[in-house]
Write a structure and sequence with these properties.
Layout lengths: L5 H6 L6 H4 L14 H9 L35 E6 L5 E4 H5 L4 E8 L22 E10 H8 L7 E12 L2 E10 H4 L5 E6 L2 E2 L9 E3 L12 E7 L6 H4 L3 E2 L8 E2 L6 E4 L4 E2 L6 E3 L2 E10 L5 E7 L7 E2 L1 E2 L10 E9 L2 E11 L24 E5 L3
Parallel strand pairs: 1-10, 15-22
Antiparallel strand pairs: 1-2, 3-4, 4-7, 5-6, 5-10, 7-8, 7-9, 11-12, 13-16, 14-15, 16-20, 17-18, 17-21, 19-20, 21-22
The chain binds ligand MTE and molybdenum atom.
Length: 382
């Protein structure tokens, strides 16, 4: 007869769990510099080079990128989108079907909800964006609402869950990337199932062959590599809605969901940069400062510019909203550059009354932080 040696069994090494691969959320210590894990994320997920603020439409390779896991291997020719859950007529469509439907192109400013995170004190440890997690592309696709109506939403539908083909683990939770929108938001006419960016099929890193575009919302809502849409009659409690992407003061705070983009203006850095510090160097003389401004809540109504780190502000001129209501706008201001050191910044206000703060709006995830940018400038003697 064999007996189990209990003492040996408990002494045996524990089989690894997901937690061994997946650290908990944390905030950096007071003196803690950005480490290799944050650098690894920053090297994968690049921002817009700020000089590319010159383009009305951001070229695809210059648009920022944020990919939680790996870029999945998706075969466009075989790819299908399923609409399931609380609908009267579940349906499955392929790319050819979607391309045969009403075709709409919208210019949409996308910004990552974590933009600005690395400037926060203390710093939430995650993708360490400064200010560059933004882009303004032209997305072409077919509106989502008619497809949902064709499937026939159940009258008690509350949330619509969008699932991507990418898979990973985050804070110990294994998952496909999934985000839900409330039904009323999913049915808004501007929401697109997009298969093209800037007139070309989506690139692998931007969600090929199909992604969701939710104009006005922070990036996390724009699900890439979209493969299913599931209508639910109970609120969705998946990780990216219930755990991540919430504004919380501390770990125990249930928080509030991150939704639409807070107003922000960026300065296109003038002059030429120092290689290491990226401090800007200018020669004295008349100079036109410019940049872009956007908000996902309401149209931008004003931009003010500072050259002294926020002590004084001057109004900028705003271009018209030619790119449409979801596109950033250009602003400009003449500046007679005289020798000295300056800290430039711009702040946007929108029609909802929101204005960009100079003080950091801190939360534990480092989300929706729209603190004013600081661009260091040295104007030479001649
Ligand atoms: N399936 C899937 N969709 C996703 C993501 C992801 O990791 N997986 N990242 C989201 C986040 S956080 C952002 S900011 C945007 C970035 O879109 P872009 O890389 O095309 O700029 O995609 C969103 N959609
Ligand atoms: Mo993001």
């Amino acid at each position: 007869m064999t007996t189990v040696d209990e003492s040996r069994r408990t002494a045996a090494p524990q089989a690894p769990t997901l937690a061994d691969a997946s650290p908990a959320a944390r905030v950096a210590g007071p003196q803690e510099a950005i480490g290799p894990e944050e650098l690894q994320l920053a090297a994968r997920n690049h921002g817009i080079p700020l000089e590319a603020l010159r383009y009305d439409v951001t070229p695809a390779g210059l648009h920022y990128l944020l990919i939680h896991y790996d870029i999945p291997d998706v075969d466009a020719a075989a790819h299908t989108l399923a609409v399931t859950g609380a609908v009267h007529r579940p349906l499955t469509v392929d790319l050819a079907d979607l391309r045969g439907r009403t075709r709409v192109t919208r210019r949409v400013t996308l910004e990552c909800a974590g933009n600005g995170r690395a400037l926060l004190r203390p710093r939430p440890v995650s993708q360490p964006w400064l200010v560059e997690a933004v882009g303004n592309a032209e997305w072409t696709g077919t509106p989502l609402a008619p497809l949902l109506r064709e499937a026939g939403l159940s009258p008690d539908a509350v949330d619509v869950v969008f699932t991507g083909a990418d898979h990973g683990v985050e804070r110990g939770v294994e998952q496909d990337y999934q985000r839900a929108l409330p039904v009323a938001d999913a049915l808004r006419e501007e929401v697109l199932l997009a298969y093209e960016m800037n007139g070309a099929p989506l690139l692998p890193q931007h969600g090929a062959p199909l992604r969701l575009i939710v104009p006005g919302w922070y990036g996390m809502a724009h699900v890439k590599w979209l493969r299913t849409i599931e209508v639910r009659t109970e609120p969705f409690d998946g990780y990216q809605n219930a755990v991540a992407y919430r504004l919380r003061r501390d770990a125990d705070d249930p928080g509030t969901p991150v939704t639409r983009i807070e107003p922000r203006a960026l300065v296109r850095p003038p002059g030429f940069p120092d290689f290491m510090s990226r401090t800007r160097v200018l020669r004295p003389g008349p100079c036109t400062l410019d940049g872009r401004a956007w908000s996902g809540h309401a149209p931008v109504v004003s931009v003010e510019v500072t050259t002294d780190g926020g002590a004084t502000w001057n109004p900028a001129e705003l271009d018209d909203q030619a790119g449409g209501e979801f596109s950033w706008r250009r602003w400009r201001m003449d500046w007679p550059a005289t020798p000295g050191r300056y800290v430039l910044g711009a702040r946007a206000a929108d029609a909802s009354g929101r204005v960009q703060p100079v003080e950091q709006p801190w939360n534990r995830g480092g989300f929706a932080n729209n603190m004013v940018q600081r661009v260091e400038v040295v104007v030479l003697a001649e």
